[in-house]
UniProtKB/TrEMBL annotation:
Domain Acyl-CoA dehydrogenase/oxidase C-terminal: 226-374
Annotated ranges, domain Acyl-CoA dehydrogenase/oxidase N-terminal: 6-117
Residues in Acyl-CoA oxidase/dehydrogenase middle domain copies: 122-214
Keyword Oxidoreductase in record: yes
Protein name per its UniProtKB record: Acyl-CoA dehydrogenase
One Gene Ontology term of the molecular function aspect: acyl-CoA dehydrogenase activity
Alphabetical keyword list: FAD, Flavoprotein, Oxidoreductase
Family the UniProt entry places it in: Belongs to the acyl-CoA dehydrogenase family.
Cofactor needs: FAD
Keyword Transcription regulation annotated: no
Amino acid sequence: MDFSFTQEQELLQKGVREFAEKVVAPRVQEMEETKNAPVDIYKAMGQNGFFAVDIPKKYGGLEMGALARVIILEEISRVSAAVGMATQVFYLGIAPFLEAASEEQKQKYLPSLAKGEKLATVAVTEASGGSDPTGIVTEAKKEGDNYILNGRKIFITNSHEADIITVVARTSQDPLQFSAFIVEKGMPGFKPGRKENKMGFHGCTTGELIFENCIVPVENLIGKEGDGLKIALKAISETGRCGMAGVALGILESCLEEAVKFANERILGGKPISVHQAIQARIADIRIALESSRLLTYRAAWLKEKGMRCDVEFAIAKYYSTEAAVQCAKKTVDIYGGYGVMMEFAAQRLYRDAQLLIPSAGTSDIQMIVIARDSLKKGKK
Ligand SMILES: Cc1cc2nc3c(=O)[nH]c(=O)nc-3n(C[C@H](O)[C@H](O)[C@H](O)COP(=O)(O)OP(=O)(O)OC[C@H]3O[C@@H](n4cnc5c(N)ncnc54)[C@H](O)[C@@H]3O)c2cc1C
């Protein structure tokens, strides 16, 4: 077992940390206030190769593997979980191309996605189907050389910034038959709808996508008809859950830094509050949660890089690290006392952002079902 980063990974971590502190940190307050997505930062990230790390070299990528994605998400989310979330969904949007697209589709779309010239997302959720995607009612009817899409997606990350969207739609009366389509911004009959007003992730758009007789050429079908849900669920189970765990790592690291700083600086009765065991216990809990979440997430990413089964490992990493982020953000707010709920301190932002990790890429209940089913199956062998 080797727990160390390669030299390349160390350099990546250092470079992303510098970028996050220089380019992202000065914009956090503005994002909190305006809730606007910083597209110029996304473009700069693309130019720095941040979206290319897990794309093969022949499509303009850097071929560094899944752990490189986690390193980037951790460092960016340490400064801004909102920018981390947008980034994780760019990776999610790239995943169906890597896993299931044809050679022509890869050549057409991956180079611009690698450079961040085009931004991506995946659209599965509808009002009638979140945890249970078989409730999807958006339909795609084949007419000549096109599919005609009608329906409405909700809660889609990067809804208004994404140029290339993998959309899952019903293509048959069979209740379990769905297909995945590449929809591009500007296609006739497609438009983003309303933007949600969320408690956290300010600076990362979550919104609706509307398809009204949207014309999608047949060559934009990914895989075969009927493969859609399998393609989307693989992307969500492996890349999406990996990404949410990566964002949680950044929040946990920020919790630890903020908690330690405040505990040392806040003087009461002539002593810093860090002398109190109650404060120390919270700091120890945050450290333990960060280190455990890191081990789970890095190992799952390592399995993915080795081409081994990793869906359950990512469900474990996603469940553990996102729940830990929620609990540790509360501990951080508690350490701050009354200052914890004041908007000028980061603690409250971490607390609000952490809760948004739970529903994204499947709620904790859904991760528990995945983990329990696998455990019960293994117990039968
Ligand atoms: C910030 C954010 C970003 C998102 N980004 C995207 C995106 O980019 N693309 C996309 O397609 N979707 C996205 N989503 C949607 C997300 O995947 C769904 O919100 C999530 O899957 C839950 O679905 P739901 O909101 O409909 O809740 P529901 O499915 O209605 O769940 C409600 C409650 O019931 C529980 N529940 C449901 N089924 C079961 C069960 N079988 N057993 C036990 N408990 C159950 C849930 O855990 C939850 O507590 C995003 C959501 C958020 C909040």
